[in-house]
């Protein structure tokens, strides 16, 4: 049976009341439904069916699985009598993207419970809209009919909800992109870890540095350092994360204490002078550009340290968008010898060639309190020619730091169990996909930690190589 093709505004009778609705389009998008009274208003939040509230009277929202897109399963016979319309809404996931930017127009398809095609509508003519009412099911006397709508909202989600009787606050406008200086010429002798993970295509290809030598066998971990996670070779990790249906959680307050630290930090000390020492229980809070000696108050130097990096996804505003987006940020350590890059530790290469720097494994969502990714550094074991270990964060999926909050970098005395010693809290978020967070510097007096906080465009750490000579010491 061939589905009825509906142009915008056209309608058709329905022989069945048990239906499945989908919208096919060449981009990540969500599907939801609005149950409306005769005046085209919802009665309350329960009449909005979406990923965080997937069940409504006579309507169920089903996430993608087994190659199938988002689906709305409808039992129109079970829809309450005071509901006159059920509108099917599709919205693009990617912030700032519009339906006019898609290479092909979305197509709404409706089938019966047994999979028989019933109707379809091509949603053409869309331009600046990011959310669209695709089709609607409405009562006519005692029967139900379907109508192709194709109405988009230039003001996005907030406009759609207000139009249907929901009182929502305005969502903040995204910040303007921060201009970044042109990257200088890449330094010589830059390594690229095994190229099993292809870098995303960008408008201008990043330089292709030469690979660093990898020893035939991994070095033995020093005492006190946890074993590296088991890897099945250095192959690229899959990056598609299935959506989750969960109630949103209230974001934690800025700079949360790590739940596993043996000592709860006391009041923060001001940034110390060059000859100051680190005090147990009083972590130093650094501001951008500040640095601190990594020497304890008993005169000893730190040895095995844990660099913890963390962040929280920004919760989207508005009723339909209370879901917390999964933000795939990656922490990496770039080892410098003067101006030269000599090694890289990241998600596809979890240990440096000499074994002094180890990555504890990848976190692909930013969910949970405390550190999202951890890099262990055995300072006495770092080769003498390495002058800096630069810690960077990149966004593989292209999410910008506007979608991230509570980003921090902190130093923990892992060997002496003195807990958190230094913290750098990143303030604000730029429309960029990379961040040079901090660096450990080798000096005549020992190691120092410097807060950097410089934004850049990079989806993999290798794309930050050309700017590393700016951070060399």
Automatic annotation (TrEMBL):
Residues 168-297 are annotated as: Disordered. Residues 178-207 have a biased composition (Low complexity). Residues 208-229, 249-273 have a biased composition (Pro residues). InterPro entries: Stress/Tellurium_Resist, TerD. Pfam families: TerD. Residues 27-164, 284-458 form the TerD domain. Transmembrane segments: none annotated. CDD domains: TerD_like. PANTHER family: CAMP-BINDING PROTEIN 1-RELATED. This is Stress response protein SCP2. It comes from Calidifontibacter indicus.
């Amino acid at each position: 049976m061939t589905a009825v093709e509906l142009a915008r505004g056209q309608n058709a009778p329905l022989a069945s009341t048990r239906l499945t609705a989908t919208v096919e389009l060449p981009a990540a998008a969500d599907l939801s439904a609005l149950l409306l009274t005769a005046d085209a208003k919802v009665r309350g939040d329960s009449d909005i069916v979406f990923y965080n509230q997937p069940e409504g009277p006579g309507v169920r929202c089903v996430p993608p699985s087994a190659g199938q897109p988002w689906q709305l399963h409808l039992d129109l016979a079970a829809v309450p009598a005071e509901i006159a319309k059920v509108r099917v809404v599709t919205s693009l996931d990617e912030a700032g993207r519009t339906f006019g930017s898609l290479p092909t127009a979305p197509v709404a398809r409706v089938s019966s419970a047994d999979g028989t095609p019933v109707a379809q509508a091509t949603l053409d003519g869309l331009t600046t809209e990011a959310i669209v009412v695709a089709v609607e099911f409405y009562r006519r006397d005692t029967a139900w009919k379907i109508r192709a709508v194709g109405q988009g909202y230039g003001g996005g989600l907030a406009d759609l909800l207000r139009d249907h009787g929901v009182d929502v606050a305005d969502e903040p406008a995204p910040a303007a992109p921060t201009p970044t200086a042109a990257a200088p010429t890449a330094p010589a002798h830059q390594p690229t870890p095994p190229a099993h993970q292809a870098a995303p295509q960008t408008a201008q290809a990043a330089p292709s540095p030469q690979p660093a030598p990898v020893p035939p066998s991994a070095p033995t971990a020093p005492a006190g350092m946890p074993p590296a996670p088991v890897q099945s070779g250095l192959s690229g990790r899959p990056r598609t994360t299935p959506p989750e249906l969960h109630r949103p959680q209230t974001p934690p307050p800025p700079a949360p204490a790590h739940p596993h630290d043996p000592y709860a930090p006391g009041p923060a000390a001001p940034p110390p002078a060059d000859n100051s020492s680190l005090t147990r229980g009083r972590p130093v809070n650094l501001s951008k550009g500040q640095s601190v000696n990594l020497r304890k108050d008993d005169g000893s130097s730190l040895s095995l340290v844990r660099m913890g990096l963390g962040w929280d996804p920004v919760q989207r505003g508005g009723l339909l968008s209370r879901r917390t987006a999964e933000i795939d940020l990656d922490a990496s350590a770039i080892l410098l010898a003067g101006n030269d890059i000599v090694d890289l530790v990241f998600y596809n290469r979890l240990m440096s060639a000499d074994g002094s720097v180890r990555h504890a494994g990848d976190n692909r969502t930013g969910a949970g309190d405390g550190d999202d990714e951890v890099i262990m550094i055995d300072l006495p074991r770092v080769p003498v020619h390495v002058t800096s270990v630069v810690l960077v964060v990149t966004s593989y999926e292209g999410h910008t730091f506007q979608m991230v909050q509570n980003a921090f970098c902190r130093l923990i005395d892992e060997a002496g169990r003195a807990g958190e010693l230094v913290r750098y809290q990143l303030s604000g978020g730029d429309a960029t996909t990379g961040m040079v967070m901090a660096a450990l510097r080798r000096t005549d007096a020992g190691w120092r930690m410097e807060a950097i906080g410089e934004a850049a465009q990079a989806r993999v750490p290798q794309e930050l190589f050309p700017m590393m000579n700016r951070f060399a010491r």
